[in-house]
């Protein structure tokens, strides 16, 4: 009981911090924080997929990008008085392509932003997990998905806007996007979405379903012998985390105002995994906090030392993997144990299960 | 007819370069279960080694410029192998039996290496001048086969030949094969698996260095040279079957030919998609790759 209470306290502090943050930050920083919150949503999905189920996906950039593009298409249409986006006019297209016409409807656009990524993930997951392609093989295939998607988006320039992507949005639901009021509302919508997704994920890990996910991570074969078929579970969790990433894409594009193939490429996709790894992939709160902290560090360092950032990022990967396999959440747990002076070896061993989750 | 032959040649040429990259990956992955995301950076190291040698020859020995490339091949191998060895000793050593962690850590190394190259040589691409005797081509039955591509093909064949002689005819190579087949058993019989692992990692990196050296013949080089090849090379390893060098060779050549033909009949963008779809379909039929063996073991 006490433990439950304590975890609630961690979540409470986290969200309290997020809800008061805009009052203390400049507009620019608040905008950045809103962007990082979107990343936090992705990190929660990766924590579920990687930390709990043991599936390492290097392709979440695609799902994030697809979600963002779905929303961006709607915004772009709203920003084009002639009914045809500007880059299409430059390409001499006079009639809106069929795919675009459906995105005039905002409900459809948001639904598609969540459904398209999860359906694609479900399909890729089904054809790989069914054949028991797992571990690093799956990671490699998910990375190939990124390469294919990015090439497609750049190649189909008439429809997607090519390398420059989609940008120059003005209004959402006829409300100007640059208004500070709109920004504040969007910020709190993002905080609320993050809250819902974390609550959902946390709840999920406490159910029987969540236990099966952990069982898949720790001993998939044993689970098979017990009569379970892991395929369905793996496909579901992969699709769910893809849906999270898609939703994050929607909120991202609303607040940042641009999406381009570069933002869904290999490097951003691997960075998403890093956020979860730094925060602690076995912990949902840790993953979300990791996304925010890593990106804050990134924006600080890349502003001050642009050259230094890449090396720092690389070193971060090494340090986390070699010294902090459970991320910051694991570190917090360790420090706490030391202070409490009741360090039991048993607990450290199963750090993955006893973390702040 | 000549068009088809020409495409076939281009395909084999592309496949042979991919093969050289993939062989190193196949060795490290098959034997040590390490996913080396920094493998592409060893290509880059090989390419920049060639570039440095070219600069040195241009300034110090302009008379012997024609021969610099022949010297660049072993030097690129050695430099890449040395850096690979260094990486194995300092980082990879701690990551055995943790494949997904190795993937992330080596990705970090790859970022560091890329940035280092950018700091030393600058972000823009640099061109490496090919020696005089590699310009031009062999005209045969109305077709021209560029000497450069023929040279690369020969280089790859030679590398593969040396690799197989090493693996099958030398004691060190046989130990490596033994460790790949059954690590515990080899260890029990007195093979120092740690030593074999470092050697394997160095050889794999060295092969990537040779690939980088040959890539300088085909275009200018930059700090991110390796990233273009790494994903394809991984697909070849998966297609070929883990730890099966013959499967890797077959997969490399097949992928090269196939993607060249698809690209010829459609476009580069569509080709990428089709090739990927075909690989996924193929894995539906043979999840363990070309040379995969059906075993009763679970993992």
Automatic annotation (TrEMBL), chain A:
Membrane topology listed for this record: Multi-pass membrane protein
Pfam families: BPD_transp_2
Tree of life domain: Bacteria
Single GO MF annotation: branched-chain amino acid transmembrane transporter activity
Locations listed in the record: Cell membrane
Keywords: Cell membrane, Membrane, Transmembrane, Transmembrane helix
InterPro entries membership: ABC_transp_permease, ABC_transptr_urea_perm_UrtC, LivM-like
Alphabetical list of CDD domains matching this protein: TM_PBP1_LivM_like
Transmembrane segments: 9-26, 32-51, 58-77, 107-129, 136-156, 185-204, 235-260, 272-293, 305-324
A cellular component term, taken from the record's GO annotations: plasma membrane
Main location: membrane
NCBIfam families (UniProt xref): urea_trans_UrtC (TIGR03408)
Protein name (database record): Urea transport system permease protein
Origin species: Mesobacillus foraminis
From TrEMBL, chain B:
Membrane topology: Multi-pass membrane protein
Alphabetized UniProt keyword annotations: Amino-acid transport, Cell membrane, Membrane, Transmembrane, Transmembrane helix, Transport
Compartment(s): Cell membrane
Broad class of the protein's primary localization: membrane
Domain of life, per lineage: Bacteria
Recorded GO MF terms: transmembrane transporter activity
Transmembrane segments: 6-27, 65-86, 150-168, 200-221, 233-258, 264-285
InterPro entries listed in its UniProt record: ABC_transp_permease (IPR001851), ABC_UrtB_bac (IPR017779), BCAA_transport_permease (IPR052157)
CDD domains: TM_PBP1_LivH_like
GO BP terms: amino acid transport
GO CC annotation terms, alphabetical: plasma membrane
A Pfam family this chain is assigned to: BPD_transp_2
UniProt keyword Ribonucleoprotein present: no
Record-linked NCBIfam families: urea_trans_UrtB
Membership in a protein family: Belongs to the binding-protein-dependent transport system permease family. LivHM subfamily.
Name of the featured protein: Urea transport system permease protein
């Amino acid at each position: 009981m006490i433990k439950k209470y304590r975890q609630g306290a961690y979540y409470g502090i986290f969200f309290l911090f997020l809800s008061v943050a805009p009052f203390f930050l400049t507009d620019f920083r608040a905008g950045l924080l809103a962007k990082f919150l979107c990343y936090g949503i992705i990190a929660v999905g990766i924590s579920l997929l990687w930390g709990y189920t043991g599936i390492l996906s290097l392709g979440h950039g695609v799902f994030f990008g697809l979600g963002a593009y779905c929303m961006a298409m709607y915004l772009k249409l709203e920003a084009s008085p002639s009914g045809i986006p500007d880059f299409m006019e430059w390409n001499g297209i006079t009639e809106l392509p069929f795919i675009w016409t459906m995105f005039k409807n905002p409900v459809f656009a948001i639904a598609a932003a969540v459904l398209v990524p999860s359906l694609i993930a479900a399909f890729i997951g089904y054809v790989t997990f069914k054949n028991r392609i797992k571990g690093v093989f799956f990671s490699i295939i998910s990375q190939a998905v990124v390469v294919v998607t990015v090439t497609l988006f750049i190649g189909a320039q008439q429809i997607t806007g090519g390398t420059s992507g989609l940008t120059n949005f003005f209004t959402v639901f006829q409300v100007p996007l640059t208004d500070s009021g709109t920004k504040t509302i969007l910020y709190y919508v993002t905080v609320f979405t993050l809250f819902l997704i974390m609550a959902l994920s946390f709840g999920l890990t406490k159910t029987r379903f969540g236990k099966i996910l952990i069982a898949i991570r720790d001993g998939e074969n044993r689970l098979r012998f017990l009569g379970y078929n892991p395929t369905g579970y793996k496909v579901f969790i992969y699709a769910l985390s893809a849906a999270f990433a898609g939703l994050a894409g929607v909120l991202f594009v609303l607040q940042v105002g641009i999406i381009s193939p570069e933002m869904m490429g290999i490097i951003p996709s691997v960075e998403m995994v890093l956020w979860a790894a730094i925060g602690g992939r076995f912990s949902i709160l840790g993953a979300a906090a990791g996304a925010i902290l890593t990106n804050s560090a990134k924006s600080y360092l890349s502003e001050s030392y642009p050259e230094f950032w890449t090396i720092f990022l690389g070193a971060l990967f090494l340090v986390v993997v070699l010294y902090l396999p459970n991320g910051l959440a694991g570190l917090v747990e360790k420090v706490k144990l030391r202070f409490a002076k009741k360090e039991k070896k048993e607990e450290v061993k199963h750090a993955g299960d006893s973390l702040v989750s | 007819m000549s068009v088809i032959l020409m495409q076939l040649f281009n395909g084999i040429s592309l496949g042979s370069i991919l093969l050289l990259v993939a062989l190193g990956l196949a060795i490290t992955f098959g034997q040590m279960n390490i996913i080396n995301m920094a493998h592409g950076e060893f290509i880059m190291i090989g390419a920049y080694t060639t570039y440095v040698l070219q600069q040195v020859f241009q300034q110090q020995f302009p008379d012997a410029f024609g021969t610099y490339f022949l010297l660049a091949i072993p030097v690129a191998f050695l430099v890449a192998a040395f850096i690979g060895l260094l990486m194995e000793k300092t980082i990879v050593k701690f990551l055995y039996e943790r494949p997904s962690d190795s993937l992330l850590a080596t990705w970090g190394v790859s970022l560091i290496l890329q940035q280092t190259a950018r700091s030393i040589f600058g972000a823009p691409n640099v061109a490496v001048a090919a020696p005089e005797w590699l310009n031009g081509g062999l005209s045969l039955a109305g077709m021209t086969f560029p000497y450069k591509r023929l040279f690369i093909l020969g280089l790859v064949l030679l590398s593969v030949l040396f690799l197989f002689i090493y693996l099958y005819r030398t004691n060190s190579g046989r130990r490596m094969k033994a460790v790949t087949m059954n690590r515990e058993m080899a260890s029990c019989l007195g093979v120092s698996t740690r030593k074999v692992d470092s050697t394997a990692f160095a050889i794999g990196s060295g092969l990537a260095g040779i690939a980088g050296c040959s890539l300088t013949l085909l275009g200018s080089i930059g700090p991110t040279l390796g990233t273009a090849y790494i994903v394809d090379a991984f697909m070849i390893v998966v297609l070929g079957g883990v730890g099966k060098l013959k499967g890797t060779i077959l997969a490399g050549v097949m992928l090269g030919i196939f993607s060249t033909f698809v690209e010829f009949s459609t476009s580069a963008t569509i080709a990428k998609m089709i090739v990927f779809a075909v690989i996924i379909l193929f894995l539906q039929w043979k999840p363990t790759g070309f040379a995969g063996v059906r075993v009763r073991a679970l993992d």
